[in-house]
Amino acid sequence: MTVTYDYAGKSVLVTGGTRGIGAGIAAAFHAAGADVTVCARTGPGRPGHRFVQADVRDPEQVERLIGGFGRLDVVVNNAGGSPHAPLEGTSPRLHARVIELNLTAPLLVSQRAYPLLAASGGAVVMIGSASGARPSPGTSAYGAAKAGLHHLARCLAAEWAPLVRVNTVVVGLAATQETADHYGGRADLDGQAIPAGRMATPEDVAAVCLWLAAPGYVTGAEVRVDGGGEVPAWRHLI
Question: Taking every annotated instance into account, which residue ranges of this chain make up the domain Ketoreductase (predicted)?
């Protein structure tokens, strides 16, 4: 069965929407008929998307970004990420910037977008991570920020109901341009680490975003897009 969505006449913002998962999400909403705006610190968006250069960690740039909308139906807080950064020996400033990008920025964007979303009966979709739901060695600040993001979404869902729905997509191992660097260049993780036998694709994540952003009853939920989680290490010992 193929599920289709009609977002014609809807205004959608995807932060970090010029590459990777964000680009896949933006493309899916565009294909469903939405007027899509993407933002990022650098680089233009794909044809068919309005592009606004903005660093969503900066409140003044968030004000400029959201101030450019007359209507807003969906915000997908996708901008995020982290380099491999063990806690020991890494600068405090790097950890602070990681937390700002993955937790503070979605809060700022959602807060500023709220009046427009409330007027349209809209939705916020947070792009979370499995790193925020289990230990994340080597990216502790990122994992802690994503755990905070998951909780932020639940808080906003309760605070803003019934006008605005807020949900989270918890993404596991994903196949993007950054995959090789993040997973040490390993190409054999799919079958060994993921029950479904492959990493998530941007299209997998986008499909859930389309569903969560559509009018409905679901709010405060976390939908895992992780192919069944991660295979426990002890399975490789037997």
Answer: 10-177
Neighbours of 21 (CB within 10 A): 30
Q: How far is CA 136 from CA 33, 76, 86, 120, 121, in A?
A: 37, 24, 10, 37, 36
Instruction: Spell out the alpha helix ranges (H) of the chain.
Output: 20-31, 59-67, 92-99, 105-120, 140-160, 179-182, 189-193, 202-213
Across 81-97, average pLDDT = 92
Measure CA 120 to chain center: 21
**Measured between alpha carbons, how far is 81 from 19 in angstroms, rounded to an integer?**
12
Domains in the chain: boundaries: 11-227
Residue 105 three-state SS: helix
Cβ burial, residue 158 (10 Å; 0-12/13-18/19+)? exposed
> How many whole angstroms separate alpha carbon 75 and alpha carbon 105?
12
User: Range with the lowest mean pLDDT among 3-17, 96-110, 191-205?
Assistant: 191-205
Task: Give catalytic residues, as residue numbers.
Answer: 142
pLDDT of residue 191: 61
What average pLDDT does the chain have? 92
pLDDT tens across 110-121, in order? 999 999 999 999
Task: Name the packing angle between helices 202-213 and 20-31 (round to 10°).
Answer: 50
Q: How far is CA 47 from the centre of its chain?
A: 21
